[in-house]
Amino acid sequence: MKLNFSLNGIEQLWFAGELPFSKIQMDKVSVRFLSGQFPSSFPRNFNEVGELLTYNRNSPAEFAVTLLLTYVHKDVPLTHGQVRIALPMETLSQISSVSGEKHQYELKLENVELIDVSPTVKVSFSDERSVKL
């Protein structure tokens, strides 16, 4: 399964209808990547408990879900960053409700291919280079 992620903002994947599970806003979710391909830009030291962000539109009825993970920068200790993953429909059925002390939901992902869609911005130097923001 391919999952787009960004270290900045990310475009939502909008689906017709209502959320397939009870409406949640910023509820905690335990995330485990069981197997898959991870690009070097994906932080390995993210907190296992992230947040599920839900979005709704009324007319026509649409919804989107984003997974928000926090990580500690490896180069700057005690500085945190965020990874945003726009969840496709097939991952939503894998979200299960649990009665955990630190989280309300659980998501286990197998055979994942993470794709970095963080915007690349050109910065003018004496030699043209592009950098990830």
What are its keywords?
1 helix; ten-stranded mixed β-sheet; mainly beta; two-stranded antiparallel ribbon; 133 residues
What's the story with the biggest beta sheet?
Answer: 10 strands, mixed
User: Count the helices. How many?
Assistant: 1
Helical/strand content category? mainly beta
* Inertia-based shape: globular
Rg calculated over all Cα atoms: 16 Å
Hey, roughly how much beta strand do the residues contain? over 45%
Low-confidence stretches: none
Domains (count): 1
The chain-level mean pLDDT equals: 82
Q: Between the first and last Cα atoms, what is the distance in angstroms?
A: 25 Å
Order of helices and strands: EEEEEEEHEEEEE
DSSP strand tally: 12
How much helical structure, as a percent, in the residues?
under 10%
Q: How would you describe this structure to a colleague?
A:
The chain is mostly beta strands and 133 residues long. The protein has one domain (2-132). Helix content is 3%, strand content 48%. It contains one helix and twelve strands. Strands 1, 2, 3, 4, 5, 6, 7, 8, 9 and 10 form a ten-stranded mixed β-sheet that branches. It has a two-stranded antiparallel sheet with strand order 11-12.
